[in-house]
Amino acid sequence: MLDWDAPARPHIRGRALIGLLRAALFGLLFLARFGLSIVAWLGWVLAAVLWLRGRHNRGPVGGATTRIND
Fold this sequence. Notes:
The protein is built from 2 helices and no strands. The chain has a domain at about 20-55. The chain has helices spanning about 10-35, 35-60. It is an all-alpha fold. Helix content is about 65%, strand content about 0%.
């Protein structure tokens, strides 16, 4: 007999699989809607992120660093 009042306890593997399928479907539908133009814009976004990350990691202006262990 099935207890309809008991709380649902799905396995973590099943939940992860459903989450993965939902994300894949979202990505597929997003690409189908916007086509190759979204891929081009994502390339620009990636380039901007990498550029900003490089500026942040470079340190002071001109790339000068202070030596601690001289």
